[in-house]
Amino acid sequence: MDINKNIQPLIAWPLICGIGIMVLLAMFLQFDQSNKLARRLSIAPADYLAKETLVMIDYGDGKIRKFKGPVLEKTRAWDLFQQAVAIGGINVEITDGFIPQEIGGFKNEKGGKQWHLYVNNAKQKFSPFEIHVSPGDEITFKYE
Questions:
Q1: Which of 51, 69, 80, 131 is deepest in the core (most CB within 10 A)?
Q2: What's the domain count of the chain?
Q3: Residue 138 CB partners (closer than 8 Å, separation 6+)
Q4: Which tens digits make up the pLDDT trace of 19-45?
Q5: Both 28 and 64 in a single domain?
């Protein structure tokens, strides 16, 4: 009987120490990974950080809706337009080429007013889907 009492601590202590070492090792590895990620994020180039861009919908009657938010490099003007109309609850109709035909009840008219896209006050000749914008750009959809 005395032999069994002496053997139990001999088995239990190495087992407890082994589990403790594994727990400490796991904690160290997790801490190391967290530090590496924090260092990587703290030195991220400014190019990867989103900057704000202004999207405006100019109805041509003095009413202008403005939306501002973060944008990454090479974002399509179409993506920003979609976000603006979704946030503003604005109904739109588009062509198959992603060109707005109606925004907020203002429809393109044959020989009359049309929706046009401007980026930094420069009128664009292509669909908003084909236009890439950068952080800080001003995107305007004008009814004129």
A1: 80
A2: 2
A3: 53, 54, 56, 118, 119, 120, 121
A4: 878 877 777 767 667 666 666 555 555
A5: no
Q: What is the spatial distance between Cα 18 and Cα 22, in angstroms, rounded to a whole number?
A: 6
Q: The dihedral of CA 39, 40, 46, 48: what is its sign?
A: negative
Q: Looking at per-residue confidence, does 4 or 28 come out higher?
A: 28
Whole-number Å distance between alpha carbons of 84 and 133: 15
Residues 118 and 66 both lie in one domain: yes
Q: How many helices (H) and strands (E) does the chain have?
A: 2, 10
CATH of the domain at 128: 2.170.130.30
Mark whether 57 and 104 lie in a shared domain. Answer: yes
pLDDT in tens, 60-105: 999 999 999 888 888 999 999 999 999 999 999 998 889 999 999 9
Tell me the pLDDT tens digit for each residue of 111-138.
999 999 999 999 999 999 999 999 999 9
Residue 3, domain extent: 1-43
* Length of the chain counted residue by residue: 144
